[in-house]
Amino acid sequence: MLRKIRSGIDRILLADKSYSFLFERDDSGEVVSLDCETTGFNTVADDVISIAAIKIRGSRILTSQAFQAVIRPTTPMEANAIKVHHLREQDLARAQPMRKVLPEFLHFIGSRPLVGYWIAFDVRMLNKYLFNFLNIHLPNRRIDVSALYYDRKYRNAPPGSAIDLRYLSILKDLGLPPLPQHDALNDALGAAQMYVILKDMCDRGMRIPRQHDPPRTYEAR
User: Fold this and answer.
1) Separation of alpha carbons 219 and 130, rounded Å
2) Which CATH number belongs to the domain containing residue 145 in this structure?
3) Which domain holds residue 41?
4) What is the pLDDT of residue 82?
């Protein structure tokens, strides 16, 4: 409800009406897997330095049509962040600023739902740019694969059950091969693969067995 209220207000405050498509009903039947790499982990002070988005149509992950861009930051790179994504300031010296990347990105995602692992962080990082650019927040519906996984495995688990929502743990549990992490395109692809399997499991009413559950097998369609 809160998202709908904010979306209604943002639609009125939209600074450039040529971007009204962001608020239109999406009839594509697609979702977009999204991931960002950043200079740090502060959603207010840090910058996005890499972004990737991949469309998903049904059970098809459209990697050949992926959006990918590196972005020149306006804030210094934190050493801890460099250790994570291995992008240095000199690697981004000739990259475009976000104001150049954002229009193409917005046209790519349209009003499709956004999929990701802890997608709220990525959206918060992007919202500060979008607010400066269009005076709005991203209105797209969000689907967090960690929440889908929790629902398939841990919903109705007994109190005190150990819960593991780590990215690599979810990949392993779903039988997916790990890709080099903290690369925006790889992480977007990993989240897309998780989504396709978990959505299929949800549609078929299947659950992921916990450690003490009777053994069951699952094969993706």
Assistant:
1) 40
2) 3.30.420.10
3) 2-203
4) 61
Other CB atoms within 10 A of residue 40 CB = 19
**pLDDT for 160-198, tens place per residue?**
889 999 999 999 999 999 887 778 999 999 999 999 999
Q: Is 131 a member of any domain?
A: yes
Count of H-run helices and E-run strands, the chain: 7, 5
**Domain annotation covers residue 214:** no
pTM for the model stands at 0.88
Q: Which helix (H) or strand (E) holds 67?
A: strand 60-70
Alpha-helical runs (H) found in 93-166: 98-109, 119-134, 145-153
Cβ(31)–Cβ(24) below 8 Å: no
Sheet holding 114-116, edge to edge: 60-70, 48-57, 30-38, 114-116, 142-144
Tell me the two tokens of residue 21.
């498509």
Give domain status of residue 211, yes or no: no
Write the pLDDT tens digit of every residue in 205-216.
999 998 765 444
Number of domains present in the structure of the chain: 1
